[in-house]
Amino acid sequence: MAAKKPRAEAKAPRSHIVRNENEAAFLKEVNDFFEKGFRPVQDMRVFAAFDRKKGQWRTLYVMPLVHFEELKAFQTIPTGDEEEPERMFG
Fold first, then answer.
1. Which residues are CB-contacts of 16 (< 8 A; sequence separation ≥ 6)?
2. Do 47 and 62 contact (CB within 8 A), yes or no?
3. Is 78 helix (H, G, I), strand (E, B) or coil?
4. What does the pLDDT look like over 14-65, one tens digit per residue?
5. Of 3, 6, 37, 80, whose CB has the highest number of CB atoms within 10 Å?
6. Distances in Å between the alpha carbon of 3 and those of 6, 81?
7. Is the dihedral of CA 48, 49, 54, 56 positive or negative?
8. What does the alpha-carbon distance between residue 78 and residue 25 come to, in Å, rounded to a whole number?
């Protein structure tokens, strides 16, 4: 009888949420993470709030990112010995 292979552990991919009120700084940080292999998992979100003390609008840019190679590996973790690897998110 053959020994069973140990199941692959599901290691979640690294993730990071870029948040910034300054558009240029936000875009620079997003670009820095792109160069490290991160990709967006959702569309960029823009939030606005009126700052009553200063009497002006404040904008917050937000983009959740995940490391692409780690996400790809995480999506194809085998679920059993003779089964097709489970494919998450399509």
1. 33, 38, 64, 65, 66
2. yes
3. coil
4. 899 999 999 999 999 999 999 999 999 889 999 999 999 999 999 999 999 9
5. 37
6. 9, 11
7. positive
8. 40
Tokens of 53: 């003390």
Residue type, 73: A
Tracing tokens 């690294």 back to the chain, one arrives at 14
pTM of the model: 0.67
Taking alpha carbons only, the member of 50, 67, 66 closest to residue 58 is: 50
Cα–Cα distance measured from residue 13 to residue 71, given in angstroms and rounded to the nearest whole number: 5
Tokens 């490391």 belong to residue: 67
89 compared with 66, residue with greater pLDDT? 66
